[in-house]
Write a structure and sequence with these properties.
globular, mainly alpha
């Protein structure tokens, strides 16, 4: 995917993930930006070539929960 398309899709993916995290009461809206933006998941998600952005919102949420609970993220092959 070229940079312009990725730049357009990335905020939609992040917004959907953030909404899922808040809906599941995992973090509050106030806590979420710090937790999400400092995560390993976000670090991988913002790099197009990792292809993590292709995962479903539910899968991204599971990866986020795993990282918060264990300190690690296990990324499946895409």
């Amino acid at each position: 995917m070229d940079k312009e398309k990725f730049a357009a899709v990335f905020p939609v993916i992040c917004s959907s993930l953030a909404e899922k995290i808040i809906d599941n009461k995992f973090f509050t809206e106030k806590e979420l930006p710090d937790k999400l933006y400092r995560s390993q998941l976000y670090e991988k998600l913002e790099i197009e070539k990792t292809k993590v952005w292709q995962y479903s919102t539910n899968k991204l949420f599971d990866l986020f929960k795993e990282e918060i609970n264990t300190g690690r993220s296990t990324f499946p092959d895409v």
